[in-house]
Specification:
The chain has 340 residues and is α/β, with parallel strands linked by helices. The protein has eight helices and 19 strands. It folds into two domains: 2-45, no CATH class; 50-319, TIM Barrel, CATH 3.20.20.70. The chain has helices at residues 91-94, 110-119, 136-148, 163-170, 185-192, 198-209, 229-243, 268-280, and strands spanning 2-3, 7-10, 13-16, 24-25, 36-39, 42-45, 50-51, 53-58, 72-77, 106-107, 124-127, 152-157, 175-179, 214-221, 249-253, 286-289, 299-300, 307-312, 315-319.
Length: 340
């Protein structure tokens, strides 16, 4: 356990400033995330170095398609989350608490993470599986060491973070892979029980503009909840207007789970229509995930139509970019790096 960053004493309790809940926490209690606890009048990050899950993944699995395509990343996560998404696939760790014994875990130091990445030939580290924002102190320490050792870092995040929380991490994170679950307060309240997507939008913009992170967006399209064309169009317009038209947008198929197990999986036609809306609004790189759809994960030059990167699942089967541009016509594709 470590003393947390970003808090202050207030009215005999402690106020956390890491995520937009800004929890006011009484002695012996935790915030909404379940892992930041008031211990004797100081805020403690109880999961510092606590790792519940670790694996070597292709970066495409995050999914991240335009940053070091083809790279392997050491992926690790802990427990807890700032949201309570009713369709969470990783609910066993996102809803776990560090002291409830429900999830096996081990302790790692930042140097252990870098050593594991080196051992497995990974040029990068991804913080994923549960919400890494609530792991901020460990994420920052690992990321500083990664930067010194020439490794890149990826945050796979719901994006629910305060400006000061993002600034605490900003210098050390290379990729901000953010879930945008909808465009309205109503969708965010229904899907993940937070009041508004406003902080998510603001953080993504800050990650790109202030900290120069590479940003990619994922929207899991849930039937009857966020699949309305107006909802999809609003997200697309935000991406183009705020993040830029070269920002990759991954539209993924919903699989029935937890609170939404009564729904059907997202029809492929719904995803196709959503992708069409995205392209109409000017998003140049729209991908479909969790479906077997030929060409839906390929990177295609928006100018000449050449397939610059062809993918089958998480595997790249063709890669013909040159310095992040189309090898045929030279159009920039917004791709950073050329893989491992």
């Amino acid at each position: 356990m470590r003393t947390a960053a970003l808090w202050q004493a207030e009215e005999g309790r402690v106020r956390c400033a890491l995520c937009p809940w800004r929890c006011l926490i009484a002695e012996g209690h935790a915030g909404v995330c379940g892992v930041r606890v008031n211990v004797s009048g100081r805020l403690v990050a109880t999961t510092y170095g606590t790792v519940s899950s670790v694996a070597v993944d292709p970066i495409e699995k995050k999914p991240v398609f335009h940053y070091r395509p083809g790279s392997a990343v050491l992926s690790l996560g802990s427990v807890g989350c700032t949201m309570r998404c009713g369709h969470c696939q990783n609910w066993r760790i996102s809803r776990a608490r560090p002291d409830d014994g429900s999830v096996p875990s081990r302790q790692l130091e930042p140097s252990d993470v870098v050593a594991l990445a080196r051992e497995h030939g990974c040029p990068g580290v991804a913080f994923t599986y549960n919400e890494p924002v609530i792991w901020a102190e460990f994420v920052r320490d690992v990321s500083e060491l990664c930067r010194a050792e020439g490794l890149f870092t990826v945050m796979v995040t719901n994006g629910y973070i305060t400006p000061e929380g993002l600034d605490f991490l900003g210098e050390w994170i290379d990729v901000w892979r953010v879930d945008v679950k909808g465009a309205t307060d109503e969708v965010y309240r229904e899907l993940c029980h937070v009041p508004s997507p406003g902080p998510v939008f603001a953080a993504a913009e800050r990650a790109k503009e202030r900290w120069g992170m590479h940003v990619e967006v994922v929207t899991n399209v849930v039937p009857t909840v966020n699949d309305d064309p107006d909802q999809i169009r609003a997200i697309a317009r935000w991406i183009v207007g705020v993040l830029g038209p070269d920002t990759p947008w991954h539209l993924t198929r919903f699989i029935p789970y937890l609170d939404f197990s009564h729904l059907e999986p997202t029809p492929v036609e719904t995803l196709r229509e959503a992708a069409g809306i995205g392209r109409e609004e000017g998003v140049r790189f729209v991908y479909l995930g969790n479906v077997s759809e030929p060409g839906a994960e390929d990177t295609v030059c928006p100018r000449c139509g050449a397939t610059a990167i062809a993918r089958k699942g998480y595997t790249i089967v063709k890669h013909t970019t040159r310095d992040g541009a189309c090898a045929r016509c030279g159009t920039g594709l917004g791709i950073v790096g050329e893989g491992a």
